[in-house]
Every structure is written in structure tokens, then in C-alpha cells.
Amino acid sequence: MSKAAELPTKDTIALIINRKNIDKVTYVFKNKYGNKIGEYENRSPATLSSRSNVARQFKQLINPKGDMEPPIFNNKFTELKQLLQLHYENEVSVIEQEIAEKKHAEQEQNIAKSKEAITKLQSLDYPLIYIGSIVEWFTAGERNNIMYAFTVYAGQVVLGNPVSVICLGEASSGKSHIQETALMLIPKQYIVNEKKITEAALFNRAKTDEYFYDGKIVNYGDMGGSNDHEFMEESKNLMKELQSDGFLNKPLSIPDGEGGWEVRELKLKGRPCLTYTTVPNHNFDEQEMSRSIFITPRMDNKKIFNLRKSALEFTHGKSYKILKKYEKDVELVPYMLLHLKEVFKDIVIINPYIHFVINFLKDSSFYKRDFDKFNGILKTITALNYYNHEIHDIDGETVILTNLSDVQQFMSILQPYKESISANLSPKAVEVLETISMTG
Fold it and tell me: What's the whole-model pTM score?
């Protein structure tokens, strides 16, 4: 709050400036005893009109009987605005200086973290295994699920491969934990959290920036029941269309601000992907199946979950201290991805071991649909292992080749999902079918 401006009546006015939007100001009126007598939101002092809420409160204070001539009041209000504007400009100057200093400090920190992340990445023989070993400290038996989700998210950030990640599970089964832990490893600027977004809200995003969703991971949060899916159906379909085609044009009826409606065109460009959690019995359409991978939390990890909780209960014990160390180490992972994104702007990945993907998907009924998706995941692993590859020049293009180590890591992560991918079912549904077949 700025220093208060004193009125002739000994009342005061102080300004509270919105630091995210300095044109938004709250005017706080207090009487001579310090008691608040009015609080109003408006714009900067210089833009206030004589009919504004601030002007009305000021008039009530200096002209309680209402006998002051309008020109006299207008002059007094102009003088007040000038005084308040001076306070406003002084306060804005301080805010802008603080923001600039904070931004500079963040830039310095980002540069230092980026250098540290690059050095660490260059020193690793198997970055994905290293990241997995850190992740294991944040979870209980869900390392593989988290690394699967992370690899798909990383493909969107580094290579622009938009594959959606959907976590299926009953309430309190740990599906949100998998999603949140994987997203913790992703640069925040590539995550857009959209809870209960409508078509009109999408239009507002497009009005600001047609490329608002380009390259982003759009998180819809928990879509637990059918009502959530029904509410989000239109916006979800639009996002899937954008994910596939890279552009979206659709006429929408938008409120005109006067109680009516007007038709405006929604225009978005770029390729986002979706991520959310939901219950296993939701019916997915073919379009969503083709654009997504599905992850189901484990239900056999109760013992390790309890052991982890027991070990970390002693907040000054050895396990707790190691966890705190890895919390610092994990902060480098998003910077690794940002570095690799820059690296792969001018590098092509070629997979000479394409037959491994073909064999992996040979039993899939949706081979043609799934091939690009899973070959893209293998190329993401190749990108993560960039510093362990030779760089080639082929016809003037900079190229790296997928190697057997990349394939081994691909098979290690994907093998538990092979049957569900082949059957076009969620991992949990495959478990159920196996249980039925064994007991039958």
C-alpha cells in the first residue's frame, strides 16, 4: 500500500496497486481515526472520471450537504487526481524496480542452473536411468509409470511430438501422483493448467495469442466422472483437432457485453497435447485413443508405500536428508529439456532400428495408428541420450542415429504395457482379463 494522501477533512486515501497489472488500483479511504470507510477498485488516478466510484466517495467526504457547485468540486477532484497520480507514479517506479531486480535475479539463477544442467547431462552415460533413480525417491513403486509419462511429455518439449497422457484409476489409487511427479520434471512454461475450460475461454486465449497452446502440455486435471467429460466435451474435441491438424477455425457465439451474442471465429495454431486423470470405465473414442498413451497406477505396492512413509517420518534421518538432496537434483531436469530443445532445432534423428518398433507392435490391431506414436517415443529417448551419440552430416543435414542402448531403454519402459497396447486396452483392463482367464 502506498503512502496515504491526506484530504482537507483529515480523511486519507491510500492506493494498492496490482503488481501483475499496474493499471488496476484499489483506493482505500480511511477516516481521521484510521477506520476504513470505503474501498474501490478502479484504474490509475489520471484516468478517473468525475462519475467514478472514487469521485463519489470523495464528494461525500468534502461535500456531505451537496451544496458545492460542480465546477468547484471538479477542480478539487482534479487536484486530488494529480496528488494521487504522483503517489501512483512513485509507487509504480518502486514496483517496476523490484520486478526488474527479481527478473534479473531469476535470469542469473536460470543461467547458473542451465550451465549446471548441461554439465550434468554431458556427464551421464544414461540420463533416463539417472532421472529414474531420482524419481524413485519421490514415489513408491511407480518409477516405470512416471518415467513412461515423463518420456512422452519430454517428447512434446524437446521434439514437438504431441502425444496425450491419460492416467486411469479409481479414487485414491495414485493416478494424480504419477501425473504430478512426471510434470514436476517438465519446464513450467510448457504446462498450461486448464480446469473446466469452456469454448468462450478458448476464444479469449486465441484473442491474446493464436499460438497460445503451441507445443504445450494442456493439463485438464482430474476428470473423474462422466459429468466432467460432458462439460469439457466441446473444448476437448477442439483441443484434439488442434493436436492433429495444427490449426483450428470455428465460428463461436460469444457474449457481446450487452446481454446479446455475436458470432466470432475461433482461430488457434500449433500442436498441443492433453493430460488428465480419469476413472477406468470411461469410454474413449478412437480419435483420443490414437493420440494418447494410457497409464494405470499399481495396486500391489502397498508394502513399499508403507516402508517409504516409515523411512521419511524421521525428518532428520538419513533417508529424509537424501530425499532433500535429490529434490535439488531434480530441479535440473527441466533445464536439461530446455537445453535439448535448443540442440534439436537443427538436428534430425534417424532410427535405423525401426524393425524393433515394428516387432513391438506386431500384435497390435492398430499398428498403423500406433507406429508414429511409439517410434516418436524411441526418438525422444535418443534425444535424451544425445551426448552419447556421434553426430553425422548427411546431405548437408546434421543427423544422429538411434542406437541399441536407446532401444533397450525403450523396451525397458514399454514392455509392461505391450499387452495393453496390442489389445488396445488400458493396462488395468488387461490385468482384469488375465485374472479372469487364470481363474476361469
Answer: 0.77
